[in-house]
Design a protein that fits this description.
The protein is an alpha+beta fold. The chain has 2 helices and 9 strands; from the N terminus they run H-H-E-E-E-E-E-E-E-E-E. The chain starts with 5 loop residues before the first helix and ends with a strand.
Length: about 140
């Protein structure tokens, strides 16, 4: 007499259960975000590249990051609340060279240090539930 192992017949149910747990675990329940847009300037000139990071003062929330567009604007989705904001802009490096290779030059910050440090940034804003424009003047 040949018997079949029952663990193979329950396999589809295990896959369904694991998949349901994985999908339910993605994202946080009730985490509505707010759209923030604006321009980034340094010494009254629009930045044409770089990174903007909104870091919630509430340690239980994750920071949000976006790139600055060529026209000096940014758009980002952030959790409502108080945020410290940093902006980073570095010299460009040769994409064909890796650190340690001959000719590689480490990128250097093109902005004052206080704008790239959460501990020193003077940029702090409160974001509500409605979309808002926040221009970053460095």
């Amino acid at each position: 007499m040949i018997t079949h192992s029952s663990h193979f017949t329950s396999f589809p149910y295990v896959v369904l259960l694991v998949g349901s747990v994985f999908i339910a675990g993605c994202g946080e329940a009730g985490t509505a975000t707010t759209t923030v847009t604006g321009k980034v300037t340094h010494k009254d000139k629009l930045l044409e590249r770089g990174v903007v990071l909104f870091s919630p003062v509430d340690a239980n929330s994750s920071p949000s990051r976006t790139n600055i567009d060529a026209d000096g604007t940014y758009q980002i989705e952030v959790m409502p609340g108080q945020h410290k904001v940093i902006v980073k802009l570095f010299t460009e490096t040769d994409p064909n060279l890796e650190p340690g290779e001959p000719g590689y030059v480490a990128p250097k910050s093109l902005l004052p240090i206080q704008y790239s440090s959460l501990a020193r940034t003077p940029l702090e804003f409160t974001v509500g539930d409605e979309p808002v424009e926040i221009n970053l003047e460095l």
